[in-house]
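Duplicate of earlier report; DNA topoisomerase input re-posted below.
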Amino acid sequence: MPRLRRVQPYTSPGYQRRRRGSGFEYRHADGGLAGRAERRRIEELAIPPAWTEVWIAEAPNAHILAVGVDAAGRRQYRYHPAWRERQDAEKFERMTELARVLPDARRSVRRQLAAEGRGRARALAAAFRTLDLGALRVGGEEYLLAARTRGLTTLLMRNASVEGELVRLRFRAKGGALHRIELADAGLVGFVESGADARPSSRLFSWRAEAAARAGLRAVTASEVNDDIRERTGGDFTAKDFRTLRGTLAAAEHLAAERPLATKRARSAAVRGAYVAASEVLHNTPTIAKSSYVDPRVVRAYESGFVLETSRRPEAALVALLEEERVDEAG
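Output:
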């Protein structure tokens, strides 16, 4: 892996992209134009024409190669492939460790969900369980204000309903897509029903101090959810790690159902189907599922003839599969 240089966009040496005629020119901070070789390197980054405020690192081994603002006003980055590879490896190792510690964390969640009332511990347990089962984005006030989209912490009472032992969630999520999610969990049903007297516009994951029964509900925040995850698991995990785990498990379970197939064409179709399965769980595209959420070791294991043992608890089976893949790589 090449040695990378850490840079600070817009501060470290680099080029600014400027419109010139039907194309672009690239100027250094001193006003000089990028040379032919530099221009070729920059164009190979395939920076979208719609990006504005574009900055390109001068160093070809910079960990961030380019930055810009897309048409929606969001800051976007082009990372060095080696940096992405390193970050992905750390992400999937963290996901594997989360799979190891979830059983103990779930026990505390079940106990707190079974409690009476609507205290803070129960609200955090409900948020944890919803992440665990539904792999929602954690959400935040900034997304709600900027795009009117919701995630876990900004869901309202009106976004949830109960039918038997099912909790149904219906809300506009990232990108404006309408999400419909069903969660089969008696503890979550009890938590949602405990808010039956709350206003429909109140936050779903909210709590009331026992000493202030007449006080309004207090909403759980994204930072509180992530702090609670770390406290329950004893690891440096966040809500996003649940999405990585759910996406990888969905892909692994799909491949286990397919079993090793005889032809390369059939195996390729099975792998494509695995990315589709992951995208359906995560409510995004197969391309994003492949690039960001599905551990490539699961696919490599399948191509080598190894799949998830479906007779075991899913997380334990996934850990065993990934350990087997690690041993196979070392051999």
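The longest helix spans residues 81-113.

Merging into the original ticket.
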